[in-house]
Design goal:
alpha+beta; 7 strands; 7-stranded mixed β-sheet
Amino acid sequence: MGMSVTISVATEHDAEQIFKLQYLCFQSEAALYGNYRIDPLVQSLDSVRQEVAADCVFVARLGEEVVGSVRGKITEDGAAAIGRLCVHPRLQGHGIGARLLRAAESALVEERGAKKFRLFTGHRSEGNLRLYRRVGYETVGTSEGADGVPMIVLEKPATTYATTA
Protein backbone atom coordinates (compact mmCIF):
# COMPACT_ATOMS: atom_id res chain seq x y z
CA MET A 1 0.00 0.00 0.00
CA GLY A 2 1.44 3.39 -1.03
CA MET A 3 1.78 6.38 1.22
CA SER A 4 0.49 9.82 0.36
CA VAL A 5 2.32 13.08 0.82
CA THR A 6 0.98 15.22 3.66
CA ILE A 7 1.53 18.94 4.24
CA SER A 8 2.02 20.22 7.80
CA VAL A 9 3.61 22.97 9.83
CA ALA A 10 7.32 22.33 10.33
CA THR A 11 8.63 21.69 13.82
CA GLU A 12 12.11 22.17 15.29
CA HIS A 13 12.67 18.44 14.73
CA ASP A 14 12.31 19.01 10.97
CA ALA A 15 15.09 21.61 10.67
CA GLU A 16 17.88 19.17 9.85
CA GLN A 17 15.83 17.37 7.19
CA ILE A 18 14.80 20.75 5.68
CA PHE A 19 18.46 21.80 5.66
CA LYS A 20 19.57 18.64 3.86
CA LEU A 21 16.64 18.72 1.41
CA GLN A 22 17.31 22.36 0.57
CA TYR A 23 20.96 21.54 -0.15
CA LEU A 24 19.93 18.70 -2.47
CA CYS A 25 17.18 20.60 -4.26
CA PHE A 26 19.09 23.79 -4.96
CA GLN A 27 22.00 21.98 -6.66
CA SER A 28 20.15 22.22 -9.97
CA GLU A 29 19.66 25.97 -9.49
CA ALA A 30 23.36 26.37 -8.70
CA ALA A 31 24.26 24.47 -11.87
CA LEU A 32 21.87 26.62 -13.91
CA TYR A 33 23.74 29.74 -12.82
CA GLY A 34 27.23 28.26 -12.49
CA ASN A 35 27.22 29.57 -8.92
CA TYR A 36 27.47 27.12 -6.03
CA ARG A 37 27.47 29.95 -3.48
CA ILE A 38 23.77 30.74 -3.91
CA ASP A 39 22.03 31.58 -0.67
CA PRO A 40 20.18 28.26 -0.15
CA LEU A 41 23.45 26.33 -0.46
CA VAL A 42 25.40 28.43 2.03
CA GLN A 43 22.70 28.82 4.67
CA SER A 44 23.65 27.32 8.03
CA LEU A 45 21.65 24.72 9.93
CA ASP A 46 21.33 27.19 12.83
CA SER A 47 19.80 29.73 10.46
CA VAL A 48 17.28 27.15 9.22
CA ARG A 49 16.43 26.35 12.85
CA GLN A 50 15.84 30.06 13.54
CA GLU A 51 13.54 30.33 10.53
CA VAL A 52 11.55 27.27 11.58
CA ALA A 53 11.10 28.82 15.03
CA ALA A 54 10.17 32.33 13.84
CA ASP A 55 8.66 32.10 10.36
CA CYS A 56 5.77 30.35 8.70
CA VAL A 57 7.37 27.07 7.57
CA PHE A 58 5.59 24.10 6.04
CA VAL A 59 6.87 20.69 5.05
CA ALA A 60 5.65 17.95 2.77
CA ARG A 61 6.11 14.49 4.26
CA LEU A 62 6.15 11.05 2.77
CA GLY A 63 5.89 8.96 5.89
CA GLU A 64 8.56 10.35 8.21
CA GLU A 65 10.69 11.81 5.39
CA VAL A 66 10.53 15.54 4.65
CA VAL A 67 10.26 15.71 0.85
CA GLY A 68 9.38 19.37 0.43
CA SER A 69 9.39 22.67 2.27
CA VAL A 70 8.55 26.35 1.96
CA ARG A 71 9.00 29.39 4.17
CA GLY A 72 7.15 32.66 4.49
CA LYS A 73 7.26 35.75 6.64
CA ILE A 74 5.76 39.21 6.73
CA THR A 75 8.16 41.89 5.52
CA GLU A 76 8.46 45.51 6.62
CA ASP A 77 6.08 46.65 3.87
CA GLY A 78 3.41 44.15 4.96
CA ALA A 79 3.87 41.74 2.07
CA ALA A 80 4.30 38.04 2.71
CA ALA A 81 7.70 37.00 1.38
CA ILE A 82 7.67 33.36 0.32
CA GLY A 83 10.91 31.54 -0.31
CA ARG A 84 13.02 28.43 -0.37
CA LEU A 85 10.25 26.38 -1.95
CA CYS A 86 11.74 23.00 -2.73
CA VAL A 87 10.53 19.49 -3.49
CA HIS A 88 12.73 16.39 -3.61
CA PRO A 89 13.78 15.80 -7.24
CA ARG A 90 12.18 12.34 -7.34
CA LEU A 91 8.78 13.84 -6.45
CA GLN A 92 8.76 16.98 -8.57
CA GLY A 93 5.94 17.41 -11.06
CA HIS A 94 3.21 15.95 -8.82
CA GLY A 95 1.70 19.17 -7.44
CA ILE A 96 3.56 19.12 -4.11
CA GLY A 97 5.09 22.56 -4.71
CA ALA A 98 1.65 24.07 -5.39
CA ARG A 99 0.26 22.41 -2.25
CA LEU A 100 3.11 23.81 -0.16
CA LEU A 101 2.52 27.28 -1.62
CA ARG A 102 -1.20 27.06 -0.87
CA ALA A 103 -0.50 26.06 2.76
CA ALA A 104 1.97 28.91 3.28
CA GLU A 105 -0.28 31.47 1.59
CA SER A 106 -3.29 30.41 3.65
CA ALA A 107 -1.39 30.62 6.95
CA LEU A 108 0.20 33.94 6.05
CA VAL A 109 -3.21 35.48 5.38
CA GLU A 110 -5.15 33.87 8.22
CA GLU A 111 -2.51 34.00 10.95
CA ARG A 112 -0.34 36.96 9.99
CA GLY A 113 -2.63 39.24 7.98
CA ALA A 114 -0.78 39.22 4.66
CA LYS A 115 -2.29 41.48 1.99
CA LYS A 116 -0.09 40.32 -0.88
CA PHE A 117 2.51 37.68 -1.61
CA ARG A 118 5.98 38.26 -3.02
CA LEU A 119 8.62 35.82 -4.15
CA PHE A 120 11.89 35.85 -6.03
CA THR A 121 13.28 33.32 -8.44
CA GLY A 122 16.30 33.22 -10.70
CA HIS A 123 15.76 34.63 -14.19
CA ARG A 124 16.71 31.29 -15.82
CA SER A 125 14.50 29.16 -13.56
CA GLU A 126 11.80 28.39 -16.12
CA GLY A 127 10.18 25.57 -14.12
CA ASN A 128 9.79 27.83 -11.11
CA LEU A 129 8.42 30.65 -13.22
CA ARG A 130 5.85 28.32 -14.83
CA LEU A 131 4.62 27.16 -11.41
CA TYR A 132 4.40 30.66 -9.96
CA ARG A 133 2.58 32.05 -12.98
CA ARG A 134 0.20 29.09 -13.03
CA VAL A 135 -0.86 29.87 -9.45
CA GLY A 136 -1.42 33.56 -10.12
CA TYR A 137 1.89 35.34 -9.57
CA GLU A 138 2.86 38.12 -11.98
CA THR A 139 6.27 39.65 -12.64
CA VAL A 140 6.59 43.06 -10.98
CA GLY A 141 10.32 43.69 -11.34
CA THR A 142 13.85 42.40 -11.12
CA SER A 143 16.58 42.48 -8.51
CA GLU A 144 19.94 40.93 -7.82
CA GLY A 145 20.33 38.35 -5.09
CA ALA A 146 23.03 38.76 -2.46
CA ASP A 147 24.77 35.92 -4.32
CA GLY A 148 24.83 37.93 -7.56
CA VAL A 149 22.12 35.93 -9.35
CA PRO A 150 19.68 38.10 -11.35
CA MET A 151 16.21 37.54 -9.88
CA ILE A 152 12.66 38.04 -11.10
CA VAL A 153 10.27 39.48 -8.51
CA LEU A 154 6.72 38.11 -8.64
CA GLU A 155 3.64 39.13 -6.63
CA LYS A 156 -0.04 38.41 -6.31
CA PRO A 157 -2.75 39.83 -4.05
CA ALA A 158 -3.52 37.75 -0.99
CA THR A 159 -7.18 37.70 -1.94
CA THR A 160 -6.40 35.27 -4.77
CA TYR A 161 -4.64 32.57 -2.77
CA ALA A 162 -7.61 30.28 -2.18
CA THR A 163 -8.67 30.11 -5.81
CA THR A 164 -5.33 29.83 -7.60
CA ALA A 165 -3.20 27.36 -5.69
